[in-house]
Amino acid sequence: MNPTASDRRLSRREAAQFLADNGYPVAATTLAKYASIGGGPIFESFGRKPLYRSDDLLAWARGKSTGPRRSTSDTGARPAA
Prior knowledge:
By secondary structure, the chain is α+β, with helices and mostly antiparallel strands.
């Protein structure tokens, strides 16, 4: 049985590369810091090794993104229709 891409578990280094490849440059050391202090993407442990799912990584990165902005003072909120 072949797991789908979203079911595959990524090492911390692979997770950082995956995020960078998808436009969210994050260092593996930053992911390690977040794993220690909180605020990072969801991960699971296999022994002492942290493993990340691609769906969780993208959800975390998108949640940290402001979205489209016209200036640094723009909050990125879209106007109500």
